[in-house]
Design a protein that fits this description.
The protein has about 325 residues and is an all-alpha fold. The protein folds into 2 domains: about 250 residues, no CATH class; about 40 residues. About 65% of the residues lie in helices and about 0% in strands. The chain contains 12 helices and 2 strands, in the order H-H-H-H-H-H-E-E-H-H-H-H-H-H. The chain has a two-stranded antiparallel ribbon with strand order 1-2.
Length: about 325
Amino acid sequence: MKTAPAEPFSPELPDFSLILGGPLFQLLRRAHLCGDVAELVTRRVIALAIITWLPLLALSIAEGHAWGDSVKVPFLFDVDVHARFLLALPLLIVAELVVHHRTRLVVGTFVKRGLVSDDARGRFDAAIAAAMRLRNSVLAEVLLIALVYGLGVLFIWRRHAAMDLPTWYGMPVTGKLQPTLAGWWLGCVSLPLIQFILLRWYFRLLIWTRFLWQVSRIDLRLVAIHPDRAGGLGFLSTVTYAFAPLLAGQGVLLAGVIANKIFLRRREADRLQIRTPRDGDNDAVLRARAAACIHSALGSHQAHGPGGIRRARPALRARV
């Protein structure tokens, strides 16, 4: 009995994307904030700014905490909140489009260059399918949301980012932060949203790392004398540039927190102030310099005779 020949794998490039999937992506598509290939970036950035930053401004104005002396840290002078929602969040959104195009191109390069043989194509496609299942996982995003509300807002932000001063988002009362109306929106909507987007990026990095590890276990057709000096895998290094907006967004988040601690906490700022020397200190410095000049002149006299002092006068004037 003759067996039918195995169906050859499609020569088409594999459909791979770390971005186009998951419950949030489907929600954005239905809201017409994202297209089929992660376009409409400007629309998403504006919509997220309206959801996260604009209500904080409106509520702070309504409560009288947007500017003035009603609190020590008004809304308009909070560096962290503006850096977080007007700089870092757009960078995290822009990174989606960049990473989508770059990773899809890189994964397709495995097939275009013939690095994956027909015998290994099954394992390669299985690695892609496993990555897409993780990307589309509803359970994963639910766990991320639980992590954001249970750990990100209640512990990490309050412990390491929130200030123990009267601010536009809360007043410290008996050692506890009592949120204002703007503070409730910040803790229930704005912060969880950006923290979820950031954690989802970390999850995507985990998916990408796992995919590359699975590909590394496949017997690829590497070329020892390839010009890229990496056996034909040099193209993988280009992926790192695609994650530059993500790294920049993370840096902006940290910079905002540090800026608040430097410019808005008076205790830390006082420790960084440079003290000028007192009058007594200035007199001591002048006496020490005069003694050094006299010592130098005496040494020149002993070494070169009376003419040494005349030759040393220009040097003495320079020291004084």
